[in-house]
Amino acid sequence: MTKWEKYEALLPQLASLIDGEEDKVAVLSNFVALLHDEMGFFWTGFYRVESEELVVGPFQGPVACFRIRKGCGVCGTAWERGEAIIVPDVEQFPGHIACSSFSRSEIVVPVFDVTGTVAAVLDIDSCELNTFDETDRLYLERAVTLLTPYFTIPC
Ligand code: SME
Question: Which CATH architecture has domain 3-149?
Answer without folding.
Answer: 2-Layer Sandwich (3.30)
